[in-house]
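Complex record, two chains
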Amino acid sequence: MKAAGYTCRDLSVTLSGPAGERSILDGVTLDIAQGEIIVIVGRSGTGKTTLLRALGGLVLPSSGTLQLGGRDIDGPPTEVVMVFQDYAHALLPWRTVRRNVALGLEGSNKHTRAERDELVDSALEVVGLSARAEDRPWQLSGGMQQRVQIARALALQPRVLLMDEPFGALDAMTKASLQDELLAVQGRTSATIVFITHDIEEAIYLADRVMVIDGAPGRITYDIVVDLPRPRDQLKTKELPRYLALRRLVHEAVTGGLDD
Amino acid sequence: MTSPRQRLNLSGLLTVAALLLLWQGIVAARVIELQYLPAPTEIATAALSLLADGQLLDATAHTLSATVVGWLLALVVGGALGVVLGTWRPARALVAPTVDVLRTLPVVALVPIAVLLLGFSTTMEITVAAWAAAWPIVVNTMGGVAAVHPRLREVAATLHFTPARRIWSIVLPAAAPLVVVGARLGLSISLIVTVIAEMIGNPMGLGHELVQMQQALRPDAMFAAMLVIGMLGVLLNSALLSVSARVGVRGRS
Protein backbone atom coordinates (compact mmCIF):
# COMPACT_ATOMS: atom_id res chain seq x y z
CA MET A 1 0.00 0.00 0.00
CA LYS A 2 1.29 3.42 -0.99
CA ALA A 3 2.20 5.94 1.64
CA ALA A 4 -0.41 8.67 1.62
CA GLY A 5 1.27 11.61 3.31
CA TYR A 6 1.42 15.14 1.99
CA THR A 7 4.53 17.27 1.61
CA CYS A 8 3.89 20.89 0.83
CA ARG A 9 6.66 23.49 0.46
CA ASP A 10 6.05 27.17 -0.04
CA LEU A 11 2.79 26.52 -1.89
CA SER A 12 1.11 29.44 -3.61
CA VAL A 13 -2.17 29.37 -5.45
CA THR A 14 -3.36 32.19 -7.65
CA LEU A 15 -6.79 31.99 -9.22
CA SER A 16 -8.08 34.13 -12.05
CA GLY A 17 -11.55 35.46 -11.50
CA PRO A 18 -13.72 38.16 -13.00
CA ALA A 19 -11.68 40.75 -11.07
CA GLY A 20 -8.40 39.47 -12.51
CA GLU A 21 -5.72 37.42 -10.80
CA ARG A 22 -6.12 36.87 -7.10
CA SER A 23 -3.59 35.32 -4.79
CA ILE A 24 -5.46 32.94 -2.49
CA LEU A 25 -2.66 31.09 -0.75
CA ASP A 26 0.93 32.22 -0.34
CA GLY A 27 3.84 30.40 1.21
CA VAL A 28 1.98 27.48 2.71
CA THR A 29 4.33 24.85 4.10
CA LEU A 30 3.06 21.75 5.81
CA ASP A 31 3.61 18.06 6.24
CA ILE A 32 0.84 15.56 6.81
CA ALA A 33 1.81 12.03 7.75
CA GLN A 34 -0.16 9.04 6.59
CA GLY A 35 -3.01 8.28 8.95
CA GLU A 36 -3.00 11.70 10.54
CA ILE A 37 -6.18 13.65 11.16
CA ILE A 38 -5.56 17.29 10.34
CA VAL A 39 -8.23 19.87 10.97
CA ILE A 40 -7.93 23.26 9.33
CA VAL A 41 -9.65 26.20 10.97
CA GLY A 42 -9.66 29.86 10.08
CA ARG A 43 -11.85 32.75 9.29
CA SER A 44 -13.86 32.98 6.07
CA GLY A 45 -11.94 33.98 2.97
CA THR A 46 -8.57 32.79 4.17
CA GLY A 47 -8.26 30.06 1.55
CA LYS A 48 -9.19 26.97 3.56
CA THR A 49 -11.26 25.49 0.76
CA THR A 50 -8.63 26.38 -1.84
CA LEU A 51 -5.99 24.57 0.21
CA LEU A 52 -8.23 21.50 0.38
CA ARG A 53 -8.90 21.69 -3.36
CA ALA A 54 -5.15 21.88 -3.96
CA LEU A 55 -4.66 18.76 -1.82
CA GLY A 56 -7.37 17.10 -3.90
CA GLY A 57 -5.75 18.09 -7.19
CA LEU A 58 -8.67 20.27 -8.27
CA VAL A 59 -6.53 23.41 -8.36
CA LEU A 60 -2.87 23.31 -9.23
CA PRO A 61 -0.11 25.20 -7.40
CA SER A 62 1.07 28.42 -9.00
CA SER A 63 4.44 27.92 -7.32
CA GLY A 64 6.00 25.75 -4.67
CA THR A 65 5.77 21.99 -4.41
CA LEU A 66 2.85 19.85 -3.36
CA GLN A 67 3.34 16.12 -3.19
CA LEU A 68 1.32 13.13 -2.08
CA GLY A 69 3.30 10.02 -1.28
CA GLY A 70 6.38 11.60 -2.87
CA ARG A 71 4.69 12.39 -6.20
CA ASP A 72 3.74 15.80 -7.47
CA ILE A 73 0.00 16.40 -7.62
CA ASP A 74 -0.98 17.27 -11.19
CA GLY A 75 -4.66 16.28 -10.98
CA PRO A 76 -6.94 14.43 -8.58
CA PRO A 77 -4.73 11.65 -7.15
CA THR A 78 -6.10 8.13 -6.93
CA GLU A 79 -7.32 6.98 -3.53
CA VAL A 80 -8.11 10.57 -2.55
CA VAL A 81 -11.79 11.39 -2.16
CA MET A 82 -13.32 14.76 -1.51
CA VAL A 83 -16.49 15.59 0.40
CA PHE A 84 -17.74 18.93 -0.84
CA GLN A 85 -19.37 21.61 1.25
CA ASP A 86 -22.32 22.18 -1.11
CA TYR A 87 -23.77 18.68 -0.96
CA ALA A 88 -26.85 19.73 -2.97
CA HIS A 89 -24.72 20.20 -6.08
CA ALA A 90 -22.45 17.24 -5.44
CA LEU A 91 -25.18 14.58 -5.52
CA LEU A 92 -26.93 13.26 -8.61
CA PRO A 93 -30.63 14.11 -8.18
CA TRP A 94 -31.74 11.48 -10.70
CA ARG A 95 -30.16 8.63 -8.76
CA THR A 96 -31.41 6.99 -5.60
CA VAL A 97 -29.40 7.35 -2.41
CA ARG A 98 -28.02 3.85 -2.90
CA ARG A 99 -26.90 4.54 -6.47
CA ASN A 100 -25.37 7.85 -5.43
CA VAL A 101 -23.28 6.04 -2.86
CA ALA A 102 -22.33 3.41 -5.45
CA LEU A 103 -21.24 6.05 -7.99
CA GLY A 104 -17.52 5.88 -7.28
CA LEU A 105 -17.43 2.09 -7.22
CA GLU A 106 -19.18 1.51 -10.53
CA GLY A 107 -16.32 2.21 -12.88
CA SER A 108 -13.63 0.12 -11.25
CA ASN A 109 -13.04 -3.59 -11.70
CA LYS A 110 -11.54 -3.78 -8.24
CA HIS A 111 -14.67 -5.27 -6.71
CA THR A 112 -17.23 -7.88 -7.66
CA ARG A 113 -20.83 -6.86 -7.68
CA ALA A 114 -21.46 -8.52 -4.33
CA GLU A 115 -18.48 -6.75 -2.77
CA ARG A 116 -19.73 -3.46 -4.15
CA ASP A 117 -23.18 -3.97 -2.66
CA GLU A 118 -21.57 -4.80 0.65
CA LEU A 119 -19.44 -1.66 0.62
CA VAL A 120 -22.47 0.47 -0.22
CA ASP A 121 -24.58 -1.19 2.48
CA SER A 122 -21.99 -0.72 5.18
CA ALA A 123 -21.36 2.92 4.17
CA LEU A 124 -25.11 3.58 4.38
CA GLU A 125 -25.14 1.84 7.75
CA VAL A 126 -22.32 4.05 9.06
CA VAL A 127 -24.17 7.26 8.19
CA GLY A 128 -27.51 5.84 9.37
CA LEU A 129 -29.31 6.01 6.03
CA SER A 130 -30.00 2.34 5.34
CA ALA A 131 -33.74 2.97 5.60
CA ARG A 132 -33.61 5.76 3.01
CA ALA A 133 -31.55 3.90 0.40
CA GLU A 134 -34.26 3.96 -2.27
CA ASP A 135 -35.17 7.64 -1.84
CA ARG A 136 -33.86 10.39 -4.07
CA PRO A 137 -31.54 13.00 -2.56
CA TRP A 138 -34.10 15.79 -2.86
CA GLN A 139 -36.48 13.82 -0.65
CA LEU A 140 -33.98 14.07 2.22
CA SER A 141 -33.14 16.89 4.59
CA GLY A 142 -29.93 18.85 4.06
CA GLY A 143 -28.12 16.96 6.78
CA MET A 144 -29.13 13.62 5.30
CA GLN A 145 -27.95 14.70 1.86
CA GLN A 146 -24.56 15.53 3.31
CA ARG A 147 -24.48 12.08 4.91
CA VAL A 148 -25.11 10.56 1.47
CA GLN A 149 -22.05 12.37 0.20
CA ILE A 150 -20.02 11.13 3.16
CA ALA A 151 -21.23 7.58 2.55
CA ARG A 152 -20.19 7.87 -1.10
CA ALA A 153 -16.69 8.79 0.03
CA LEU A 154 -16.50 6.07 2.71
CA ALA A 155 -17.67 3.37 0.30
CA LEU A 156 -14.50 3.93 -1.71
CA GLN A 157 -12.33 3.22 1.33
CA PRO A 158 -9.99 6.03 0.35
CA ARG A 159 -6.46 6.38 1.68
CA VAL A 160 -7.03 10.12 1.96
CA LEU A 161 -10.32 11.78 2.84
CA LEU A 162 -10.64 15.51 2.23
CA MET A 163 -13.68 17.03 3.91
CA ASP A 164 -14.85 20.61 3.52
CA GLU A 165 -17.07 21.52 6.47
CA PRO A 166 -18.88 18.22 6.10
CA PHE A 167 -20.87 18.47 9.34
CA GLY A 168 -21.78 22.13 9.07
CA ALA A 169 -25.37 21.42 8.06
CA LEU A 170 -26.04 18.81 10.73
CA ASP A 171 -27.83 19.05 14.05
CA ALA A 172 -25.74 18.63 17.21
CA MET A 173 -26.76 15.02 17.86
CA THR A 174 -26.10 13.78 14.35
CA LYS A 175 -22.92 15.78 14.25
CA ALA A 176 -21.58 14.14 17.41
CA SER A 177 -22.45 10.64 16.25
CA LEU A 178 -20.87 11.20 12.83
CA GLN A 179 -17.74 12.60 14.46
CA ASP A 180 -17.46 9.37 16.42
CA GLU A 181 -18.19 7.28 13.31
CA LEU A 182 -15.53 9.15 11.38
CA LEU A 183 -12.98 8.49 14.12
CA ALA A 184 -14.01 4.83 14.24
CA VAL A 185 -13.71 4.46 10.45
CA GLN A 186 -10.34 6.18 10.56
CA GLY A 187 -9.27 3.82 13.36
CA ARG A 188 -10.10 0.84 11.15
CA THR A 189 -8.70 2.12 7.87
CA SER A 190 -5.99 4.51 9.11
CA ALA A 191 -6.90 6.88 6.31
CA THR A 192 -5.36 10.32 6.24
CA ILE A 193 -8.05 12.91 6.90
CA VAL A 194 -7.92 16.63 6.19
CA PHE A 195 -10.99 18.31 7.57
CA ILE A 196 -12.17 21.91 7.42
CA THR A 197 -14.47 23.32 10.05
CA HIS A 198 -15.54 26.55 11.71
CA ASP A 199 -16.29 24.70 14.91
CA ILE A 200 -13.29 24.87 17.24
CA GLU A 201 -14.61 22.15 19.57
CA GLU A 202 -15.11 19.85 16.63
CA ALA A 203 -11.59 20.64 15.44
CA ILE A 204 -9.98 19.68 18.74
CA TYR A 205 -12.19 16.64 19.26
CA LEU A 206 -11.22 15.14 15.90
CA ALA A 207 -7.69 16.30 15.27
CA ASP A 208 -4.19 15.04 15.77
CA ARG A 209 -3.15 18.53 14.76
CA VAL A 210 -5.16 21.72 14.26
CA MET A 211 -3.79 24.07 11.65
CA VAL A 212 -4.87 27.67 11.72
CA ILE A 213 -4.91 29.52 8.44
CA ASP A 214 -5.12 33.30 8.34
CA GLY A 215 -4.55 36.34 6.16
CA ALA A 216 -5.32 37.17 2.56
CA PRO A 217 -3.57 35.51 0.83
CA GLY A 218 -3.79 32.81 3.45
CA ARG A 219 -0.93 31.01 5.14
CA ILE A 220 -0.65 28.59 8.04
CA THR A 221 -0.17 30.71 11.14
CA TYR A 222 -0.41 28.03 13.84
CA ASP A 223 0.14 24.30 13.88
CA ILE A 224 -1.16 22.99 17.18
CA VAL A 225 -0.61 19.40 18.27
CA VAL A 226 -3.69 17.98 19.98
CA ASP A 227 -2.16 15.65 22.55
CA LEU A 228 -5.43 14.22 23.82
CA PRO A 229 -5.70 10.46 24.37
CA ARG A 230 -7.60 8.25 21.94
CA PRO A 231 -10.19 6.83 21.71
CA ARG A 232 -11.96 10.07 22.37
CA ASP A 233 -15.28 10.40 24.08
CA GLN A 234 -17.84 13.15 23.59
CA LEU A 235 -18.15 13.71 27.33
CA LYS A 236 -14.92 12.57 28.96
CA THR A 237 -12.56 14.08 26.40
CA LYS A 238 -14.32 17.40 26.56
CA GLU A 239 -14.00 17.52 30.35
CA LEU A 240 -10.23 17.11 30.34
CA PRO A 241 -8.31 20.19 31.49
CA ARG A 242 -5.99 19.72 28.51
CA TYR A 243 -9.01 19.89 26.16
CA LEU A 244 -10.13 23.15 27.71
CA ALA A 245 -6.63 24.60 27.48
CA LEU A 246 -6.41 23.61 23.82
CA ARG A 247 -9.81 25.10 23.13
CA ARG A 248 -8.64 28.42 24.52
CA LEU A 249 -5.38 28.20 22.57
CA VAL A 250 -7.07 27.47 19.25
CA HIS A 251 -9.68 30.12 19.86
CA GLU A 252 -7.00 32.72 20.44
CA ALA A 253 -5.05 31.54 17.44
CA VAL A 254 -8.08 31.87 15.17
CA THR A 255 -9.26 35.25 16.42
CA GLY A 256 -5.72 36.55 16.75
CA GLY A 257 -6.74 37.64 20.21
CA LEU A 258 -3.41 37.79 22.03
CA ASP A 259 -4.77 40.39 24.37
CA ASP A 260 -7.13 38.21 26.40
CA MET B 1 -45.36 16.16 -11.09
CA THR B 2 -47.80 14.69 -13.59
CA SER B 3 -48.01 11.01 -14.31
CA PRO B 4 -46.51 10.05 -17.67
CA ARG B 5 -49.83 8.66 -18.78
CA GLN B 6 -51.86 11.67 -19.74
CA ARG B 7 -55.41 11.65 -18.54
CA LEU B 8 -58.14 11.75 -21.12
CA ASN B 9 -59.08 15.37 -21.63
CA LEU B 10 -62.85 15.00 -21.97
CA SER B 11 -63.78 18.66 -22.31
CA GLY B 12 -61.02 19.09 -24.93
CA LEU B 13 -62.43 16.19 -26.93
CA LEU B 14 -65.91 17.69 -26.70
CA THR B 15 -64.55 20.86 -28.30
CA VAL B 16 -63.19 18.81 -31.18
CA ALA B 17 -66.53 17.07 -31.60
CA ALA B 18 -68.37 20.39 -31.55
CA LEU B 19 -66.06 21.86 -34.20
CA LEU B 20 -66.54 18.81 -36.42
CA LEU B 21 -70.29 19.13 -36.01
CA LEU B 22 -70.12 22.82 -36.92
CA TRP B 23 -68.04 21.98 -39.99
CA GLN B 24 -70.51 19.30 -41.05
CA GLY B 25 -73.36 21.75 -40.55
CA ILE B 26 -71.66 24.49 -42.59
CA VAL B 27 -70.99 22.16 -45.50
CA ALA B 28 -74.50 20.64 -45.39
CA ALA B 29 -76.23 24.03 -45.18
CA ARG B 30 -73.98 25.47 -47.91
CA VAL B 31 -73.28 28.53 -45.79
CA ILE B 32 -69.87 28.93 -47.40
CA GLU B 33 -69.53 28.17 -51.10
CA LEU B 34 -66.25 26.30 -51.40
CA GLN B 35 -66.28 23.95 -54.32
CA TYR B 36 -63.89 21.45 -52.84
CA LEU B 37 -64.60 21.59 -49.10
CA PRO B 38 -65.62 18.07 -48.07
CA ALA B 39 -67.73 17.33 -45.04
CA PRO B 40 -66.11 15.42 -42.14
CA THR B 41 -68.21 12.39 -43.02
CA GLU B 42 -66.85 12.38 -46.59
CA ILE B 43 -63.30 12.62 -45.23
CA ALA B 44 -63.96 9.68 -42.94
CA THR B 45 -65.34 7.62 -45.82
CA ALA B 46 -62.33 8.47 -47.97
CA ALA B 47 -59.96 7.59 -45.14
CA LEU B 48 -61.67 4.22 -44.64
CA SER B 49 -61.56 3.31 -48.31
CA LEU B 50 -57.91 4.40 -48.63
CA LEU B 51 -57.10 2.37 -45.55
CA ALA B 52 -58.94 -0.62 -46.97
CA ASP B 53 -56.91 -0.75 -50.17
CA GLY B 54 -53.63 -0.38 -48.24
CA GLN B 55 -52.56 2.76 -50.06
CA LEU B 56 -52.77 4.98 -47.00
CA LEU B 57 -51.08 2.43 -44.78
CA ASP B 58 -48.12 2.07 -47.14
CA ALA B 59 -47.76 5.82 -47.38
CA THR B 60 -47.98 6.16 -43.60
CA ALA B 61 -45.39 3.45 -43.04
CA HIS B 62 -43.01 5.18 -45.44
CA THR B 63 -43.42 8.62 -43.87
CA LEU B 64 -43.16 7.24 -40.35
CA SER B 65 -39.97 5.31 -41.03
CA ALA B 66 -38.33 8.20 -42.90
CA THR B 67 -39.25 10.55 -40.05
CA VAL B 68 -37.88 8.27 -37.37
CA VAL B 69 -34.69 7.34 -39.24
CA GLY B 70 -33.96 11.01 -40.00
CA TRP B 71 -34.62 11.92 -36.38
CA LEU B 72 -32.42 9.12 -35.04
CA LEU B 73 -29.57 10.29 -37.27
CA ALA B 74 -30.11 13.82 -36.00
CA LEU B 75 -30.16 12.59 -32.41
CA VAL B 76 -26.85 10.74 -32.71
CA VAL B 77 -24.95 13.31 -34.75
CA GLY B 78 -26.59 16.39 -33.23
CA GLY B 79 -26.35 14.99 -29.71
CA ALA B 80 -22.66 14.23 -30.12
CA LEU B 81 -21.99 17.68 -31.56
CA GLY B 82 -23.99 19.25 -28.73
CA VAL B 83 -21.97 17.37 -26.09
CA VAL B 84 -18.68 18.44 -27.67
CA LEU B 85 -19.76 22.07 -27.99
CA GLY B 86 -21.24 22.12 -24.49
CA THR B 87 -18.16 20.60 -22.89
CA TRP B 88 -15.44 22.44 -24.72
CA ARG B 89 -15.72 26.19 -24.60
CA PRO B 90 -13.17 26.98 -27.36
CA ALA B 91 -15.13 24.76 -29.75
CA ARG B 92 -18.29 26.65 -28.89
CA ALA B 93 -16.64 29.99 -29.67
CA LEU B 94 -15.33 28.56 -32.93
CA VAL B 95 -18.52 26.94 -34.17
CA ALA B 96 -21.44 28.81 -32.58
CA PRO B 97 -21.79 31.50 -35.30
CA THR B 98 -21.78 28.82 -38.00
CA VAL B 99 -24.44 26.86 -36.13
CA ASP B 100 -26.57 29.98 -35.82
CA VAL B 101 -26.38 30.69 -39.55
CA LEU B 102 -27.01 27.09 -40.61
CA ARG B 103 -29.91 26.48 -38.26
CA THR B 104 -31.79 29.58 -39.38
CA LEU B 105 -31.59 28.65 -43.08
CA PRO B 106 -35.16 27.82 -44.14
CA VAL B 107 -34.98 24.11 -44.74
CA VAL B 108 -37.76 24.25 -47.33
CA ALA B 109 -35.35 26.12 -49.57
CA LEU B 110 -32.83 23.34 -49.16
CA VAL B 111 -35.11 20.60 -50.46
CA PRO B 112 -34.78 21.51 -54.18
CA ILE B 113 -31.00 21.67 -53.75
CA ALA B 114 -31.00 18.33 -51.98
CA VAL B 115 -33.05 16.87 -54.85
CA LEU B 116 -30.39 18.02 -57.28
CA LEU B 117 -27.60 16.61 -55.14
CA LEU B 118 -29.17 13.33 -54.02
CA GLY B 119 -31.93 12.75 -56.57
CA PHE B 120 -35.62 11.98 -56.06
CA SER B 121 -34.87 9.45 -53.37
CA THR B 122 -35.61 8.37 -49.84
CA THR B 123 -31.96 9.13 -49.06
CA MET B 124 -32.64 12.74 -49.97
CA GLU B 125 -35.77 12.73 -47.82
CA ILE B 126 -33.99 11.34 -44.76
CA THR B 127 -31.02 13.65 -45.25
CA VAL B 128 -33.06 16.85 -45.20
CA ALA B 129 -35.18 15.59 -42.29
CA ALA B 130 -32.04 14.77 -40.30
CA TRP B 131 -30.46 18.10 -41.21
CA ALA B 132 -33.46 20.08 -40.02
CA ALA B 133 -34.04 17.99 -36.89
CA ALA B 134 -30.40 18.16 -35.83
CA TRP B 135 -30.29 21.88 -35.03
CA PRO B 136 -32.68 22.05 -32.10
CA ILE B 137 -30.98 18.92 -30.75
CA VAL B 138 -27.51 20.50 -31.11
CA VAL B 139 -28.55 23.77 -29.51
CA ASN B 140 -30.46 22.25 -26.59
CA THR B 141 -27.89 19.55 -25.86
CA MET B 142 -25.14 22.17 -25.94
CA GLY B 143 -27.08 24.38 -23.54
CA GLY B 144 -27.88 21.50 -21.20
CA VAL B 145 -24.31 20.22 -21.14
CA ALA B 146 -22.81 23.67 -20.64
CA ALA B 147 -25.17 24.26 -17.71
CA VAL B 148 -24.09 21.15 -15.78
CA HIS B 149 -22.97 22.39 -12.37
CA PRO B 150 -19.16 22.61 -12.14
CA ARG B 151 -19.30 20.72 -8.85
CA LEU B 152 -20.56 17.63 -10.69
CA ARG B 153 -17.53 17.81 -12.99
CA GLU B 154 -15.32 17.93 -9.91
CA VAL B 155 -17.15 14.96 -8.43
CA ALA B 156 -16.37 13.08 -11.64
CA ALA B 157 -12.75 14.24 -11.44
CA THR B 158 -12.23 13.14 -7.83
CA LEU B 159 -13.86 9.80 -8.59
CA HIS B 160 -11.44 9.40 -11.53
CA PHE B 161 -14.07 8.91 -14.18
CA THR B 162 -12.94 8.39 -17.73
CA PRO B 163 -14.35 11.03 -20.11
CA ALA B 164 -16.79 8.48 -21.53
CA ARG B 165 -18.09 7.57 -18.09
CA ARG B 166 -18.29 11.21 -17.08
CA ILE B 167 -20.45 11.97 -20.11
CA TRP B 168 -22.60 8.87 -19.77
CA SER B 169 -23.13 8.81 -15.99
CA ILE B 170 -23.10 12.50 -15.12
CA VAL B 171 -23.21 14.98 -18.00
CA LEU B 172 -25.96 13.42 -20.12
CA PRO B 173 -28.34 12.63 -17.23
CA ALA B 174 -27.81 16.11 -15.82
CA ALA B 175 -28.49 17.63 -19.23
CA ALA B 176 -31.33 15.21 -19.98
CA PRO B 177 -34.29 17.56 -19.47
CA LEU B 178 -32.93 19.91 -22.16
CA VAL B 179 -31.82 17.05 -24.40
CA VAL B 180 -35.40 15.77 -24.31
CA VAL B 181 -36.70 19.21 -25.24
CA GLY B 182 -34.34 19.23 -28.23
CA ALA B 183 -35.36 15.69 -29.16
CA ARG B 184 -39.05 16.59 -29.11
CA LEU B 185 -38.56 19.67 -31.25
CA GLY B 186 -36.37 17.64 -33.59
CA LEU B 187 -38.97 14.91 -33.94
CA SER B 188 -41.78 17.26 -34.92
CA ILE B 189 -39.48 19.08 -37.35
CA SER B 190 -38.38 15.77 -38.81
CA LEU B 191 -42.01 14.88 -39.58
CA ILE B 192 -42.73 18.26 -41.17
CA VAL B 193 -39.63 18.19 -43.35
CA THR B 194 -40.20 14.57 -44.34
CA VAL B 195 -43.66 15.45 -45.63
CA ILE B 196 -42.31 18.50 -47.47
CA ALA B 197 -39.56 16.40 -49.04
CA GLU B 198 -42.19 13.90 -50.18
CA MET B 199 -44.27 16.68 -51.70
CA ILE B 200 -41.37 18.23 -53.61
CA GLY B 201 -38.83 15.48 -54.09
CA ASN B 202 -39.46 11.88 -53.23
CA PRO B 203 -42.65 10.49 -54.80
CA MET B 204 -43.60 8.36 -51.81
CA GLY B 205 -45.33 8.63 -48.47
CA LEU B 206 -48.07 10.87 -47.17
CA GLY B 207 -46.65 14.07 -48.67
CA HIS B 208 -46.75 12.57 -52.13
CA GLU B 209 -50.20 11.15 -51.42
CA LEU B 210 -51.35 14.67 -50.60
CA VAL B 211 -50.03 16.10 -53.88
CA GLN B 212 -51.38 13.21 -55.91
CA MET B 213 -54.85 13.58 -54.45
CA GLN B 214 -54.74 17.29 -55.13
CA GLN B 215 -54.09 16.57 -58.79
CA ALA B 216 -56.88 14.01 -58.75
CA LEU B 217 -59.23 16.64 -57.30
CA ARG B 218 -59.88 14.48 -54.26
CA PRO B 219 -60.10 16.93 -51.34
CA ASP B 220 -61.64 14.25 -49.12
CA ALA B 221 -58.56 12.06 -49.57
CA MET B 222 -56.27 15.06 -49.06
CA PHE B 223 -57.92 15.81 -45.75
CA ALA B 224 -57.63 12.14 -44.83
CA ALA B 225 -53.88 12.22 -45.51
CA MET B 226 -53.53 15.43 -43.52
CA LEU B 227 -55.40 13.84 -40.65
CA VAL B 228 -53.00 10.91 -40.64
CA ILE B 229 -50.00 13.29 -40.65
CA GLY B 230 -51.46 15.13 -37.67
CA MET B 231 -52.07 11.89 -35.82
CA LEU B 232 -48.52 10.75 -36.54
CA GLY B 233 -47.21 13.93 -34.96
CA VAL B 234 -49.27 13.44 -31.82
CA LEU B 235 -48.36 9.75 -31.55
CA LEU B 236 -44.64 10.33 -32.05
CA ASN B 237 -44.59 13.07 -29.43
CA SER B 238 -46.42 11.07 -26.82
CA ALA B 239 -44.32 7.98 -27.56
CA LEU B 240 -41.17 10.02 -26.98
CA LEU B 241 -42.58 11.47 -23.78
CA SER B 242 -43.50 8.09 -22.37
CA VAL B 243 -40.10 6.63 -23.28
CA SER B 244 -38.29 9.49 -21.57
CA ALA B 245 -40.53 9.21 -18.52
CA ARG B 246 -39.78 5.51 -18.37
CA VAL B 247 -36.02 6.07 -18.29
CA GLY B 248 -36.57 8.57 -15.51
CA VAL B 249 -36.16 11.88 -17.29
CA ARG B 250 -38.64 14.47 -16.22
CA GLY B 251 -38.78 18.04 -17.37
CA ARG B 252 -37.65 19.70 -14.17
CA SER B 253 -39.19 23.12 -14.49
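Note: The mean pLDDT of chain B is 89.
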